[in-house]
Amino acid sequence: MSTKIRLAKYIAHAGVCSRKQASRLIDEGAVIVNNRPANHIDHVDEQDQITVNGQIIKGTAELIYFAYHKPVGIDCKLDQNDPASLYHHLPTITRVYPIGRLDKDSRGLLILTNDGELCNQLIHPDFHQPKRYLVSVNKSIDAEFCTKMAAGVPVDKQITLPCSVEKIADKQFSIILKQGLNRQIRKMAHYCGYKVIDLYREQISELTLQTLNLAQGQYIAINKSDIIK
After folding, report:
1. Which of 112, 160, 167, 199 is the most exposed, having the fewest neighbouring CB atoms within 10 Å of its CB?
2. Do residues 23 and 46 share a domain?
3. What's the confidence (pLDDT) of residue 15?
4. Residues 220 and 180 in one domain
5. Which residues contact 155 (CB under 8 A, 6 or more apart)?
6. How far apart, in whole angstroms, are the C-alpha atoms of residue 229 and residue 219?
7. What is the pLDDT of residue 184?
8. Considering 48, 103, 198, 226, which one is annotated as catalytic?
9. What sign has the CA pseudo-torsion 172, 173, 178, 181?
10. For the chain, what is the domain count?
11. Which of 125-129, 132-136, 152-156, 178-182 comes out lowest in average pLDDT?
């Protein structure tokens, strides 16, 4: 007899979405277990009938991974009715979703996968997986700016975690984050009196765009070991 596991974990293993996103779907009433609305304490296995947004899910999906070089102007929300949505630029062989979204005005590395557990490992701050960005701003950077950004500043009613910030040109710096608040770098820079002109993510964990040699708008199949050791 198989061991029953928590519903959100089962949904993540089935390749539908991350555990966090699964919990949100349960809250929204989009998950049905054995013909009744699901709740968070449900434990399930393959003998149970589970539907997410009306679609039956079963077992563990074949896990796949892609790297995508996102251009400016692509929205990471998976909305098939939006011509600018990432939905229209994904591999069509199976359902994948982005890990660590970039806002529409930002560019660089995205990881696309159906591996909900990997998503949790990469975006949860407890795992401390680094993400490196190159950022251009509207005026010259001084040492005080780098020190202030690195120490942590108020964003969305909390202080950002300490991070690495290095000036690399008069109006450009690199920053390595281990958390992912909404529009975090833009909000951090704004607090310090700067406006972000260009934001480019070049690295997530072990994976870098430089080694992939991907043109903007291209994606390539990768292995999980390329991302995290």
Report:
1. 167
2. yes
3. 74
4. no
5. 181, 184, 187, 188, 191
6. 21
7. 95
8. 103
9. negative
10. 3
11. 125-129
Q: Residue 125 in contact with residue 178, Cβ under 8 Å?
A: yes
> Which residue stretches of 131-183 are H helix?
143-151
pLDDT at position 211 over 60 = yes
Residues 120, 215 within the same domain: yes
Looking at the structure, tell me whether residues 141 and 170 fall in a common domain. yes
Say yes or no: 135 and 200 in one domain. yes
Is 117 found in the same domain as 94? yes
**Could you confirm whether 48 is annotated as catalytic?**
no
Q: Which domain holds residue 22?
A: 5-57
Residues in a beta bridge with 133: 175, 201
Residue 20, both tokens? 């966090």
134 and 183 fall within a common domain: yes
Determine the length of the chain. Answer: 229
pLDDT bucket at 141, cuts 50 / 70 / 90: very high
Which of 73-82, 100-109, 114-123, 190-199 is the most confident on average? 190-199
pLDDT digits (tens, 9 = 90+) for 147-175: 999 999 999 999 999 999 999 999 999 99
CATH of the domain at 198: 3.30.70.1560
Whether pTM exceeds 0.90: no
**Are 223 and 120 in the same domain?**
yes
